[in-house]
Amino acid sequence: MRPSDLTLAEASAAIRERRVSPVELVDSVLDRIDQVEPRLGAYTAVWADRARRAARDAEREIAAGRVRGALHGVPVGLKDLIDVAGTATTASSKVRTDHRAGSNSAVAARLAAAGAVLIGKTHTHEFAYGLTTPQTRNAWDRGRVAGGSSGGSAVAVAAGAATFALGTDTGGSVRVPASLNGVVGLKPTYGLVPRHGVTSLSWSLDHVGTITRTVEDASLVLPVLAGHDPRDPASRPGRPRPGAAADLSGLRVGVPRNHYFEHVDPVVEAAVRTAIDRLADLGARLVEVEIPMARYVQAVQWGLMVPEATAYHERTLRAAPDLYGADVRALLEAGELMSAGDYLRAQRARTLMRESWSRLLAEVDAIAAPAVPVAAVPAGQETVTWPDGTVESVSDAYVRLSAPANITGVPALSVPVGHDAEGMPIGMQLLGRPLAEDLLLRVGHAYELIRPAHGLAPVA
């Protein structure tokens, strides 16, 4: 087994026990990048020399007994919305051609302090405004979409081109690509991970999240990132300490009777329902639940996101509209047609939705549902047609099941639970109360103990 094949938990243990050095691990991941990057396009930039210097520094510190924690010496990829001092934050856009970050984002600084090795920047759908990341190809099938907008991060982790990665999630942009590439995506509670130094898409919906090979890995990364930062107005205190108990006895898991299993590929539904049954085998009590205000989810998501994104880009859109991709430009221009009244109605509906979800999550400890309604579609496919004749855009299909967690701010975790007939990964989503990441990670880890994650994607 190559060091790049190791999960974060395995790599951390190997480094701690002196079976693998940070230099060996980083060299192996860089070799893997050289091997797969021409076929996958996960990265906007790879900092090989910088990463090797950091690995040598980590090796010296660890040899001297100064171990900073589980991430020390472990390579990480950062979505190219996240500032790293002295490097470009391109947002995968021509608009940012000459950009250089003057300082580290909060999360980059926390990773560096923990000794993680920053290995490069990963592709995003331009300014995170999309669900496919067209520059990047799916790690399991290069002819299919990677998912977005954190597609580069998910593909890098799935292919062994990063031991773990960070993404952002505004309407599913961590969980969707994680699900489509067979890895684990965690969107924490709104504000738990600070966003200072992270390019915004929609400030009231944006979250920084993690993409890892396993749930166990996610539980090692989140405590490093979480915690209050006064530079982020939405930031809140919190330091998750997830346990690893495999017994779920007494845990109430909500199974939606509406929304989450509507217009879903039967193969996806079957895989997720089988996974939910496995949670019951572990002692969880399954409770049928009604998702509140489900008919308003899409309208509220777009009603918040579109005007906020347009406001963020207002000056650049007027000064250099031709620098934006056609799809992103159209969405930004559409935001100029929305009134203040439209935005306020979306905010009021969000308040009602948060209140109703709070009541729902008082009745159950977690909700289990599909992460996406269909596995990765072929690149270039624009719509999904459901058996009842309903036609839905690919972006609407992928955002539909992930948006409620962004609107309400509750934590959500995507866990691989199988593959469709063509071998494409399927993900289950676990949602919980605000700041209940420890519980979601415990449930996800209990599931993966009985169904261990597959190895790296078979990049062809």
TrEMBL record:
Superkingdom: Bacteria
Domain Amidase: residue ranges: 24-441
Composition bias, Low complexity: 235-246
InterPro entries: Amidase (IPR000120), Amidase_CS (IPR020556), Amidase_dom (IPR023631), AS_sf (IPR036928)
Positions of region (Disordered): 227-246
Pfam assignment, any one: Amidase
Protein name, per record: Amidase
Species for this entry: Actinomadura yumaensis
